[in-house]
Amino acid sequence: MTSENGPGSMQGVFPILVTPFDEQGRIDEESLRRLIDFNIDAGVHGLGVALGSEIFKLSEHERDVVTEIVVSQVRQRVPVVINTGAPGTNLAVQYSCRAEALGADALMVIPPAFMPAGPAEVLEYYRAISDAVKIPIFLQDVPSAPISASLARQIAESCEWVRYIKVETVPITNKVAAMVAEAGDQLTVFGGAGGGYFIEEMRRGSMGTMPFCSQPEAFVQVWKLVQSGDEVTARAVFDQVIAPMNRIASQGAGIFYHVHKELLRRRGIIATAKVRSPAPAIDDLTQRELQDLIGELYPVGSL
Hints:
The chain is of the alpha/beta class.
């Protein structure tokens, strides 16, 4: 990407949608459409389908179905970002072209992680995808396939459509700061990892976050407060509403799917909290703590 293009213009709160399933594990279209409107009504700036959507558990046909539902329900009210990363370059190109054809506004692409790839191979992977599409691309920096700030800059300079990066490797706040310092003139930096460091990331130059979709109004409120200069109130909202849910969601590997789906079920947005197998079980005590927290944050009558 040439320096004249610069980073992308999308910013703000871009929740990653869960994929609602019925009790038989089939995609629940009605719940998904309701979830999309719930987030848009909350004032989000974009929506995504990615790892938090259990996309890796969907067949290729189901990926198309979810993308089609999201694009048709959003109706261009906000940008739609579809995750199209894959273990192989040809497959990632296929997923990316298909998402673009179905109406995605941008792509989010994780580097190959199943078989380790060196920097030169990662660069060629992104170049192949960028050459095949004409919509913006988010790099996705994750623990299983981290992208250094220097490599991110090199990819952005070499790939026309790479204009964003979602940072999720620890230490996240340090990585965000390094990414902004090294590549901020080439990439718009977003945070991720459930939005757990949203305020700290913004202090370091992040321009958005991609959290779960169960508390969109709280994330939008925090974003607006920080943008207006009121970090004190933003921190109070974050600590009272977002942080307690994130604490429970991070107590066990992979239980965040159940936690956020259960919150959405209790809020009346999706019909079930079904998570596709394999999925870790939540022990009885954590389940009680989750139910108590939901009742405290969203009392009956306020939902």
